[in-house]
DNA sequence: GCCAACGTTGGC
DNA sequence: GCCAACGTTGGC
């Protein structure tokens, strides 16, 4: 089991929209970055991830689960790009802001801080626990 | 809306 | 294969 973080601009695809999809899930398409794609290829069914709102909010608002392995991105004919499907699991009761992450010394090496522009990031188990704690997420 | 950081592209 | 130019992302 591994942990990840998915970034989205709420205007394009928000947590509300993700939740509305329910169990069906939604392809995380439109990624045009090799590192982000490689991360998705490494994902397994059942992996957990944070859902982060960039630009507007700048906070971790939800928890998602990978429900389909990497497959060709339906939004392009370019076979280089792939995506996984994710489904909403639950809200983060107290959204964890970027400022809060930056202010937490134990999270100083988190990709959210060090690789700001990467849209699909790995999260370590330790980081996962700390953020869940900060967000008031039930274990 | 601005601008810095970074990834990608394309000419050589 | 290098590197400059360009486009995009995302925090502020």
TrEMBL record:
Family matches, as Pfam families: EVE
Limits of the EVE domain: 2-134
InterPro entries: 5hmC_binding, EVE_domain, PUA-like_sf, THYN1-like_EVE
Name of the protein described by the UniProt record: EVE domain-containing protein
Originating organism: Stappia sediminis
């Amino acid at each position: 089991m591994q942990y990840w973080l998915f970034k989205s601009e709420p205007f394009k695809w928000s947590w509300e929209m993700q939740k509305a999809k329910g169990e069906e899930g939604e392809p995380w398409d439109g990624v045009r970055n090799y590192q982000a794609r490689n991360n998705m290829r490494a994902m397994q069914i059942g992996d957990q991830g944070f859902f982060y709102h960039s630009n507007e909010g700048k906070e971790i608002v939800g928890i998602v689960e990978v429900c389909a392995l990497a497959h060709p991105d339906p939004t392009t004919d370019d076979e280089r790009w792939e995506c996984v499907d994710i489904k909403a699991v639950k809200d983060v009761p107290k959204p964890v802001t970027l400022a809060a992450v930056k202010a937490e010394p134990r999270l100083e090496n988190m990709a959210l801080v060090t690789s700001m522009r990467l849209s699909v990031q790995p999260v370590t188990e330790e980081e996962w626990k700390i953020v869940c704690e900060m967000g008031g997420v039930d274990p």
